[in-house]
Every structure is written in C-alpha cells, then in structure tokens.
Amino acid sequence: MDRVTDLTSGIGREGNKMMLLEEHNGIPIKETMKVLYSVRRMKFVWEIIVLSFTLALFYFTTSEPLNRRTAYEQELSIIEAIQDEEFQGSTYKKNFLEIRSEEEFWQWAEGPLISALYSAKADSADHHVDYMNSYLRLVGGIQIRQFRVRDNSCVDRRRVQEWDSNLDTKDGSCFSRYGYDVSNKTVPSWATAWATESSRLIGHWGHCGQNNCPTFMHDEVIYGHGGFYIEIPPPSKLLPFNASSQTTALAMIQSLRDKNFFDRGTRAVAVEAAFYNTNTGILTASRYVVEQFPSALLEAHAKYRHAGPSLFDSNTSKFRTMCEGFYLILMLYQFQREVKRMLYTRPILRWWQDPFSYMELIYFFCHFIYVKEWYAFVNSPKRKSFDVNVGTFVSYFDMGHDLFLMWQWAGFAFLLGIFKLMRFFSLNRRVSVMWQAIYDR
Fold it and tell me: How far is CA 331 from CA 159, 328, 350, 411, in A?
C-alpha cells in the first residue's frame, strides 16, 4: 500500500513540474514534438520528390539516345538477310545457326553472306551500291578472323609413350582446345596480319584449357582481340563497280577456300560487319562466329550490338544533355545525404547492420557504372570519328557491346530506384503510420 502511495505521489510531482514549466515559460514538450514530427514529415516528402524526379530524369536520359524498337527492327532485317537465309547444297535447307561442317560454312559464306552484302548488279545506280535492303549501308566492308592451334598442341594427351602409335593419328598431328599458349602464331599465306584492334571474342561453347580463363567462366573460351584476319572492302571498292580493282568479294572467299582457310587447326572463325541506317541514325555491328572443337563439334552463333553515333544533333538531344546535368546533381545530393546518415548514426555500426544500407550502396554503384560507361561512349574516338564513307574496316562491335552492358547496369539501377520509391509508399509499418498521420492532419 505504501508502494502504491509513493508511485502516486511521484506521478503527481512530475505533473506539477510540467505545470510549473508551462506557467513559467518552460519547454512546451507537446508542441516541440509536433514541430519535430512535422519537420520529419516534410523531409520525408522532400525525399520522395527528389527520388521521383531523379527516376524520371534517369528514364528519359537512358531511353532517348537509342530507340530500342527501331534498333530491334533493324536487327531483324539483318538476321533475315544473313543469319536466317537458307543456303543451298545440304540435304535439307539450313541457315547459319545450323552449320555443322566445314562444307556448310563455305556454302553459307559463298551464299547468304555474299548475296546479302555484295549482290548489287553492275548496272545498279550508284546510290544502291554498298547498301543491303536499300537502307543499311555496309560501313568499311567486312573482316574475317581466324584463331588457330598448332598441330602438336595436344602432344601430352596422346598417350604415345604407353601405347606407341596405337592411339595416334596417321600423320602424328594432334590439335587441342584453344588457348593462347597453344595457339599457332605463324601467319598463314592468306592472312593480312595478326589483328590488334578487333573486337574481343569469347566463345559460346567449349572449355578452357589450363590457366586460359577464370574458373567462373570455365564453359567459355576467351579468344581475345587477336586472330589472323583478312578484310573484304565494300562493293564500291571491288569489281564490277571499281575498274581499278582486280577481284570480287566472291573470288576472295573462294581464294580462302582454295588455301585451306578452314582446316583441323581452326578453332574459331569470326565474320564481322557494321551497318548504318541514315533514316534511323542507328549503327548495328554484327558478328558471326563458327567454333570448331577437338570433339569434332562445330557450333555457330551470332550477336548484334547497336549504337547511335550522333548524340547532339537535335533539340531533343540537347534537352537530354541538360537533363543529364540535373540528374547528376540530384544523384550527388542523394549520395551526400546517405553519407551524412551514415556518419550521424550512433553507433555507426548500426548503419552497417541495416540491410537497406547495402541496397543503397548497390544503388549508387550501379549509377556510378552507368555514368562512367556513358562518359566513355560519348568520348569514344571511334564514335567521334565515325564515317559511313570509310573504305577500310573498323570494328564497332566492342563499342556497341560496352553500350549494351551499360544499359544492363542502367536497368538494374532503375529497378532499385523503383524499389526505394515503393519503400516510401508504405512497405513497412513505420512508413504506413507516418502516411496515416499526414492524412489525419
């Protein structure tokens, strides 16, 4: 009973203290808390506005430089003309992806490839030469690359010491899977030289040899930027359109066949071409690869990458550039806010224990990669020097591929931004209570 009396008297004393504070102009606790919650709500709403505006700017700045639908339509026209076009000679009609022998590779190269890119007649008007489907201009011709291995590259795996010649080939040769240490670096008679500025080629199938590629990519072969190459100029540089030329594209392909271009030492052949459409302003780089493995399997695959070389030629693109500036400012603002939140958290370990802190880190990292890659593309020497009238081959595939990867980072960053925005709109109890308080007020 005495304990209850003491508790009651304690509460009374605290109440008297609060009354005395109010009577003598003390701290108005209730009103102070209202102001603090009001400020917090205003900051909360401000963060929603900043994030929403950032996402809107980000969506516009990433979608304006390249019309994906138009790029896909352009890609389909190339696929239909070169990749899906059936070639003659096989028991049933096949296309590029169904190549399973050396002979079928030559049938495709002398058939759909030449027909699509070098089929204009001698009496064609000048404005039709160098174009495929009348719209897609072949930029700089095509490049054909080959990666080879030595004929004694698998000598350690032939078991000749134990079995003598019982398991050996007739001529004593043996060809291993591709690796730089077993590659054949002797320049063939048909080749111009070893490529140095070509696109980076990674195999679609196959397996890496010892120490040839990282463990997490053990199902792919990294061929790299090299390989022996030969270039076939655009049609306007060859017969019958150029009288000073002594050959045709078909004759150059047949010459490669006569010189045993594709043999047992071949591990990969890459045919690369770039097309530009003035109507759409889109550059499409295409690459067709045929790999040959020690198992006797031939596997064909193709990739297409797109880019818009001209970035500042319209009022819309100039407006996009201005939006990019605002986007960067807002991202820097959000970043410094998050840094302050981390520094003001006590103890600071609490910030690192919050799972959403790591989401913030990934969010800013994705945006950093996007900005870095976009800056690299804008300032790319190949983009700045792009010319549809160039007479020699220039590889634009890596430039388009880097842009392709940049879009992936941008998409992931946008998804994280949407998730952050959803958190603001009552994905947890605290936010729900806050929105309810704003509504009741």
Answer: 62, 5, 24, 16
Which amino acid is present at 101? S
Query: For 26-67, how does the pLDDT look when each residue is reduced to its tens digit (9 = 90+)?
Result: 556 666 666 556 656 677 778 889 999 999 999 999 999 999
One-letter amino acid at 52 equals S
For residue 315, what are the CA distances in angstroms to 243, 307, 420, 425? 44, 19, 32, 36
DSSP symbol at 152:
B
Q: Enumerate the domain spans of the chain.
A: 39-63+313-385+396-440, 69-307
Coil, strand or helix at 318:
helix
Q: Are 83 and 96 in contact (CB under 8 A)?
A: yes
Calpha distance 215→177 (Å, rounded):
16
| Mean pLDDT of the 309-324 span | 93
Tell the residue number behind the tokens 């070389």, with chain if given.
309
Q: What is the mean pLDDT of the chain?
A: 85
Instruction: Report the C-alpha gap between 257 and 251 in whole angstroms.
Output: 10
- DSSP for 429-440, written as a single string: HHHHHHHHHHHH
Distance between CA 332 and CA 326 in Å, rounded? 10
